[in-house]
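Replying to the earlier thread about multi-chain prediction with a worked example.

Input:
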Amino acid sequence: MSEQKIDGIIEKYRGKPGALIHALTEIQHELHWLPREVMEKVAEALEVPFSLVRQIVSFYKTFSLTPKGRHEVHVCTGMTCHLRGAAKLMAKVAEITGLKPGETDTDSRFTLERGSCLGSCSIGPELIVDGKHYGRMTPDKVEDVLKRYE
Amino acid sequence: MPKLESVAALESLRSDILARRDATRPCIAVCAGAACDGLDSITVATAFKSEIAKQGLEGKVDLRVTGCHGYCEKGPNVVVGPKDVCYFEVTPEDVPGIVSATLKGEVFEERVYKDPQTGAKAVHMDEVPFYKHQTRLLIGDNPKIDPMKIEDYIAIDGYAALAKALSTMTPDEVLNEVKKANLRGRGGGGFPAGSKWETTKNAPEKTKYVIVNGHEGESAAFMDRAMLTGNPHKVIEGLIIGAYAIGAQQGFIYTRHDAPRLVEHLKAAMAQAEEYGFMGENILGSGFSCNVELHFDVGIFVSGESSGLMRSIEGNAPEPRPKYIRTSVSGIWDKPSNLNNVETWANVPQIITRGADWFTSIGSERSKGTKLVSLSGNVVNSGIVEVPMGTPLRTLIFDIGGGVRDGKSLKAIHFGGAMGGSIPADQIDAKLDFDEMSKLGAPIGAGGLLVMDEDTDMVEVARYLLDFLVKESCGKCVPCREGMYQMLKILTNITEGKGKTSDLDRLGDLMEVTSAASLCALGKTASDPLKSMMRYFKDEYETRIATGGGAGSQAI
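Result:
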């Protein structure tokens, strides 16, 4: 099913080198990472060198060369969130999940990321899990939020 | 909806829409801007929907889910028209009360604004302190529009400016109006948009592009997203008018991929604009055609830099190019490309509709119109604020912002994110003006204003900002990649109590070289916050080095 979907995305952009970022973004959203075989297929279909695909994937932060967890946890570390205690929030999330920013746990449950600035400054500091924003977050509320994600 | 083939067809559609609407019927606007959304305003909207259905009020009370209203601090926000009664911190439990009060033409007292000191209530939008000092020409339409519905925009004179430009003005006349209005770029530089348009227009290549920069990577700036998410058609309208003036056949909108609602609204708005004939082939039967593509930033700060952004649209890594050839002459695929920020484009329709003379009557001597400001940090009322250029910072921070949080005192005001600057509290009477703020060392940038209280550690602020930029440098040029890294090392040493007396001289050298020799604005302005610190807060650095760390090193 997923493979079909990926092939569909790649076919949509066949022969269009300028659409490289579009194709990779859609695949990243689908698979949450970019396996080598998929990047090779993209290179072949869009008629771009594999080295260019690697350059783009390693340059933009959204793309991942390693599998991510089922749930992506972002702690906003933008300026306002930082002024309002994002560091303490990050420390608590790191403690609960046992992860440093950029890491994924062995059960593939969580991937922890820093996000800078996610634009909800008025309700900072905030935690974002799978795109859902939890505003005015405090270290003692973190555990309850993360419990909801298995 | 069949495509509109003429200006007359647009006007008749507008009359139809207005005839179907009852301007006196109450309309409940629930904010779903980024902050309210994060506070679950959607549950409030759902509660209104079921309450209206339960009481059988369809056709008697309208409900609208909208973009950001502005007063993010007090979200979820609800505004009830036509009298604009404002309710704050609304929960689903308040909904039946608000609905029945609205039906009776009364006010649900529990959720109106109360002054924290005096307890005095403010019911209507123009009485609430946060709103009453503002001039909301751009963001003010947000509560009136469901961004997913083009009819809402048409109902408030949307696309009338485009119709006017296409049917009654030549491209040169449009360009001259924008030049005369002295519209300056809202993205950071403050460069006159009209001159930029003219450069692209006069470039010899036939193929030309226009671009909306909706990247908004500046930390603590969130107004462009609010504009583009809450009122996407205004930006599209400005873009098409610009394309007409410049003679561009293709437009691009470049924005963030990580804001789902922004993406959803923009895609819907672009599809509707095309369906109705406001973009695409033969716009409003004028013979002018312009297609628009949507592109996404995928997570790196430097792709907001104009030449980096253009590389990204081409499908490459966003490495900036040297600026001896301007992007307005040679940009995307080496074609002349005019790039303006979201807010700049959003200003264009009103300049065409109301004229340059009206526009220049607002603002300060050299900065015209209004400016959107994201007010955040240690301030009581954070949110999105729109004031005329030239407004004193005191009005922004105290009258609108309600002063510093938790009864603390103001230490510094920071503008312009990671490449901006901080000025001390005694500059509170400075005016929000491109040139005045630049002279003070805190250029407005895109408009992110951060309030810093007495506990703020200024060494840590500079270290934090550089730490952010070091991670975002594309690495193409040495002065930026290495210069910033060395500055960060020194600052980290100082914050850890390992500073040396020679450090400030070393920092001075690094700042000079990095700003002179870097390829793009990221490196050139990376040391601007530090420069402002050396100008206003040098003693704090000296004391820290002399005493070896200590106070305030925990919190920023």
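Residues 478-495 of chain B form the longest helix (18 residues).

Feel free to reuse this layout for your own posts.
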